[in-house]
């Protein structure tokens, strides 16, 4: 009887994770749009540092969920972006955001590919 209960719990957990994954997938387009807007801010010297911090915050959130919903490469790219921005903003000014731009574009490409693959 205990095994049936464990199987039921496992099924409920799997169903919950599937719903979280579906919500995550449906949020990818909005996340890409947000990153695109942040890229525009990154190009302006007056807003590039705040854009970096906002990109970092979004990458941190993305990194946190990706492993749980089955997108490890996307999570790894988000983590790399987050770590690069941490070292960048701790360094000298003016900021060289070229690699942030490159990493973010790579991440968005991965997001689009993941969205296409999930459809």
UniProtKB/TrEMBL annotation:
<dbReference type="GO" id="GO:0000160">
    <property type="term" value="P:phosphorelay signal transduction system"/>
</dbReference>
<dbReference type="InterPro" id="IPR036641">
    <property type="entry name" value="HPT_dom_sf"/>
</dbReference>
<dbReference type="InterPro" id="IPR008207">
    <property type="entry name" value="Sig_transdc_His_kin_Hpt_dom"/>
</dbReference>
<feature type="modified residue" description="Phosphohistidine">
    <location>
        <position position="60"/>
    </location>
</feature>
<feature type="domain" description="HPt">
    <location>
        <begin position="13"/>
        <end position="119"/>
    </location>
</feature>
<dbReference type="Pfam" id="PF01627">
    <property type="entry name" value="Hpt"/>
</dbReference>
<keyword id="KW-0902">Two-component regulatory system</keyword>
<dbReference type="GO" id="GO:0004672">
    <property type="term" value="F:protein kinase activity"/>
</dbReference>
<protein>
    <submittedName>
        <fullName>Hpt domain-containing protein</fullName>
    </submittedName>
</protein>
<keyword id="KW-0597">Phosphoprotein</keyword>
